[in-house]
Design a protein that fits this description.
about 210 residues; 2 domains; five-stranded parallel sheet; 8 helices; 5 strands
């Protein structure tokens, strides 16, 4: 339900790189799997790895020849990526400074929150206990046919919350995530190395006039 206390109707958070410092862990996991496939990753690969779904990254690692008959191989690489990422999370997860305080502040308001992640639910469930916040909704990779950078995850989150996307604030950090939230019509705030947006900033951003179009 929309907030009655001012601000956005909902705040939709990306997870990896926004609330938890896992993007380095994801890159390490992907690089290790890539190496097992005879590939070496560099800066040019970053847009195809960071903020993308595990399925998209697996297909990218197998490119340029992920043939339909290679579906079992694709499934195997997805599992390798998931396992490598989960192992690193279990041994080295860091919550982004300021995230617990921001989530606690939102919990004290009537503003619903959702976690909108490109990670599979198995990874999300590893992270959730560390955040200490009861999200009203969790959208994981399996919940939409298309993941980020497509708008589907954010549109689905807004739909399930009964909120207009244009009245939702999305907090993102990666180009793929920012593209997804923007395409969905959300108001996007970018988490930076300097930190997350403040609660007053989020509430003020949600009070802007609705976008046209």
């Amino acid at each position: 339900m929309p907030s009655e206390r001012g601000g956005p109707d909902a705040v939709l958070f990306d997870m990896d790189g926004t609330l938890v410092d896992t993007e380095g862990l994801w890159w390490q996991a992907t690089a290790s799997v890539a190496a097992s496939l005879g590939r070496s990753l560099g800066g040019a690969d970053e847009p195809y790895v960071v903020g993308r779904t595990i399925e998209d990254v697996a297909a990218y690692l197998l490119a340029p020849d992920p043939l339909p008959q290679d579906a079992p191989r694709l499934t195997k690489v997805v599992r390798q990526l998931t396992d490598a990422f989960a192992d690193r999370i279990e041994h080295g997860l860091t919550v982004v400074p300021g995230a617990p305080e921001l989530l606690a502040g939102l919990a004290a308001t009537a503003i619903p929150t959702a976690l909108v992640s490109a990670s599979p639910r198995s990874i999300v469930e590893l992270v959730l206990p560390r955040l200490g916040h009861a999200f009203d909704l969790v959208i994981a990779n399996e919940d939409t046919a298309r993941g980020k950078p497509y708008p589907d995850p954010y549109l689905e989150a807004a739909r399930r919350l009964g909120a207009a996307p244009s009245r939702c604030v999305a907090v993102e950090d990666s180009p793929a995530g920012i593209a997804a939230a923007t395409a969905a019509g959300c108001r996007v705030l970018v988490a930076s190395p300097e930190g997350l947006p403040s609660l007053p900033h989020i509430r003020a951003h949600g009070n802007l006039p609705s976008y046209g179009g």
